[in-house]
């Protein structure tokens, strides 16, 4: 564990707490892509079910339980409790364009051709693009509530912090994980446009609005 | 070393 990874994980944790706070206080999931949230459930289940056969640390296990539990709870809130506030007509990204290529990539790029490793690769590839339905929705509506942008920023910062973590681990432990690093760089890259608007507008007190 | 990384990251 190093500081970059710890801060990254805490940022990930914070992003989910911000999202839950937004949904609970506004009693609405307006502006949140159900498809992205469903993809995160798939990511967490595919990767973290190793809870049952791989023990790393109490920290690691507790985080895995939290991520699986909270992501399922968010889906429940969107699908049942606050269903009327969820508008599928603007959540139109075709997720099969993400699922199928990720499935194929995970069959080609994995560390061992066995179900658990293929699932692990699949979850890494899928996580890297899972935010696309959400960003696509933002692009369509052209604006977002401030709290939704804080959620996205925390999620993007989490990914960005994993990059110095890998650099640090490479130099201190000689560890390199090419699949996670490649997917992680792609994933962070997807946030660049968003970060630009977030840092130049939202943090200056302006509304999050994309140029037409 | 081991060709399969530990997967100790979240």
TrEMBL record, chain A:
Which Pfam families does the UniProt entry name for this protein? ER_lumen_recept
Record's subcellular location: Endoplasmic reticulum membrane
Please give the GO cellular component terms listed in this UniProt entry. Answer: endoplasmic reticulum membrane
Name the coiled-coil region(s).
none
Per the UniProt entry, what is one GO biological process? protein retention in ER lumen
Give UniProt keywords alphabetically.
Endoplasmic reticulum, ER-Golgi transport, Membrane, Protein transport, Receptor, Transmembrane, Transmembrane helix, Transport
Recorded GO molecular functions are:
ER retention sequence binding
Is Endoplasmic reticulum there in the keyword field? yes
InterPro entries per the record?
A: ER_ret_rcpt
Task: Give the domain of life.
Answer: Eukaryota
Is Transmembrane there in the keyword field? yes
Topology of this chain in the membrane: Multi-pass membrane protein
User: Where would you find the membrane-spanning parts of this chain?
Assistant: 52-76, 97-113, 119-138, 150-167, 179-199
Give the record's family classification: Belongs to the ERD2 family.
**Listed name of the protein:** ER lumen protein-retaining receptor
């Amino acid at each position: 564990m190093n500081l970059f990874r710890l801060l990254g994980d805490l940022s990930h944790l914070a992003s989910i707490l911000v999202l839950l706070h937004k949904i609970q206080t506004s009693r609405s999931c307006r502006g949140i892509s159900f498809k992205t949230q469903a993809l995160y459930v798939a990511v967490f289940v595919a990767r973290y079910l190793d809870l049952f056969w791989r023990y790393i640390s109490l920290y690691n296990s507790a985080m895995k339980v939290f991520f699986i539990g909270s992501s399922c709870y968010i889906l429940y809130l969107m699908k049942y409790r606050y269903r009327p506030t969820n508008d599928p007509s603007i959540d139109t990204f075709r997720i099969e364009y993400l699922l199928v290529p990720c499935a194929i990539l995970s069959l080609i790029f994995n560390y061992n051709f066995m179900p658990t490793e293929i699932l692990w690769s699949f979850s890494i590839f899928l996580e890297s693009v899972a935010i696309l339905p959400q960003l696509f929705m933002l692009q369509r509506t052209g604006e977002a509530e401030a709290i939704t942008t804080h959620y996205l920023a925390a999620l993007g910062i989490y990914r960005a912090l994993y990059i110095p973590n890998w650099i640090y681990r490479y130099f201190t432990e000689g560890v390199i994980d090419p699949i996670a690093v490649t997917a992680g760089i792609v994933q962070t890259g997807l946030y660049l446009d968003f970060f630009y608007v977030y840092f130049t507008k939202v943090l200056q007190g302006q509304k999050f609005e994309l140029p037409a | 070393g081991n060709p399969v990384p530990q997967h100790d990251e979240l």
